[in-house]
């Protein structure tokens, strides 16, 4: 498995895997398949250009994705949010998620991010275990965070201090 940064040239594969994730696991993401489906390919390319994303490849096939969106305002530029983590079921259990997170964490440290946050849908133990294994800790659960087909889902808010205290 090769993990590498994604660029706008990867937009087609990235968009296809992201749409698959949103369609197959709508409760795992705040974005919806319907909203992202209607966005042009250029929107995916622009997202890859603006933020740091990684892909987990086996040959030419993309099986996993994750992104890091850094805050842009001066007062909170020390923070970033982990977004869009997804590993295709056929690649589950092969260390793709861990490799993606390790690449993201190495990049975050290298660019001076001091505080990482993410959310994970309550009831997703595999994702929660992965995040905890790399140091994330829960700081609260938001009830009724998203609704999918009329059903309410809570989101577990997690934080990782990268140890770059001012």
From TrEMBL:
One Pfam match:
Acetyltransf_1
For molecular function, the Gene Ontology terms on record are: acyltransferase activity, transferring groups other than amino-acyl groups
Q: Which domain of life is it from?
A: Bacteria
Q: Does the keyword Transferase apply?
A: yes
Q: Does the keyword Lyase apply?
A: no
PROSITE patterns the record matches: GNAT
> Which InterPro entries does this entry report, sorted A to Z?
Acyl_CoA_acyltransferase, Bact_Acetyltransf, GNAT_dom
Q: Which residues form a coiled coil?
A: none
Keyword annotations of the record = Acyltransferase, Transferase
Q: Which residues form the N-acetyltransferase domain?
A: 1-163
Name under which the protein is recorded: GNAT family N-acetyltransferase
């Amino acid at each position: 498995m090769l993990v590498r940064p994604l660029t706008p040239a990867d937009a087609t594969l990235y968009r296809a895997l992201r749409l698959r994730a949103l369609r197959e696991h709508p409760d795992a993401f705040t974005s919806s398949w319907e909203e992202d489906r209607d966005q042009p390919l250029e929107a995916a390319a622009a997202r890859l250009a603006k933020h740091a994303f990684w892909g987990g490849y086996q040959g030419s096939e993309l099986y996993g994705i994750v992104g890091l969106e850094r805050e842009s305002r001066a007062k909170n530029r020390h923070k970033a949010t982990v977004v869009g983590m997804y590993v295709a079921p056929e690649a589950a259990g092969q260390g793709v998620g861990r490799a993606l997170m390790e690449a993201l964490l190495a990049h975050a440290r290298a660019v001076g991010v001091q505080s990482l946050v993410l959310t994970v849908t309550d009831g997703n133990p595999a994702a929660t275990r992965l995040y905890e294994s790399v140091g994330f800790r829960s700081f609260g659960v938001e009830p009724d965070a998203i609704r999918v087909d009329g059903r309410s889902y809570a989101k577990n808010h997690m934080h990782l201090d990268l140890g770059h205290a001012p």
